[in-house]
Amino acid sequence: MKFRKATTKDVPSIVKMIADDNLGKLRENYQDPLPQTYYKAFENINKDLNQVVENDQTEIIGTLQLSYLQYLTYQGGIRAQIEAVRIKREFRGKGIGKLMFQWAIERAKYKNAHVLQLTTDKSRPDAILFYEKLGFKASH
């Protein structure tokens, strides 16, 4: 398994994973060809470290968006933000999500982020439990 920077070619696979759950089905528009709005968003996002995870056959099996928010408070501190965490359905429950978060935590430390945060929908109890097991705490 390897972590790498996402490319434009990966956008359909990423959107397909994002759309493959109860909430994603309601709000995403996965189709072929993929609507241009996804490519425009990816262009903006890809200026930061947004990643995909591949297996040994170079199949994308997971994705997360790791972004850094620079601000003036905390003496010019950096806040790391994790979004759009997804594992391809047939690879769930195999420890890939944990490896992805370990990778993201190390990247946030490397960038000297003073906090690493994520958001999730309250209607995703399995995801909330997973994040709590990793040490994240609900704060808002």
Q: In words, what does this structure look like?
A:
The chain is an alpha+beta fold. The chain has a single domain (2-133), classed as Aminopeptidase (3-Layer(aba) Sandwich). The chain has 6 helices and 5 strands; from the N terminus they run βαααββαβαβα. It has a 5-stranded mixed sheet with strand order 1-2-3-4-5. A hairpin with a 5-residue loop joins strand 2 (50-54) and strand 3.
SSE order and pairing:
Layout: E1 2-5, H1 11-19, H2 22-27, H3 36-45, E2 50-54, E3 60-70, H4 73-76, E4 78-87, H5 96-110, E5 115-118, H6 125-133
Parallel strand pairs: 4-5
Antiparallel strand pairs: 1-2, 2-3, 3-4
- CATH architecture designation: 3-Layer(aba) Sandwich
Query: What name goes with the CATH superfamily?
Result: Gcn5-related N-acetyltransferase (GNAT)
Question: What percentage of amino acids are in beta strands?
Answer: 15-25%
Give the number of DSSP strands.
Answer: 5
Compressed to H and E, one letter per element, the order equals: EHHHEEHEHEH
In helices, the fraction of residues equals: 25-40%
Structural class assignment: alpha+beta
Q: Report the total helices.
A: 6
Please indicate the count of domains. 1
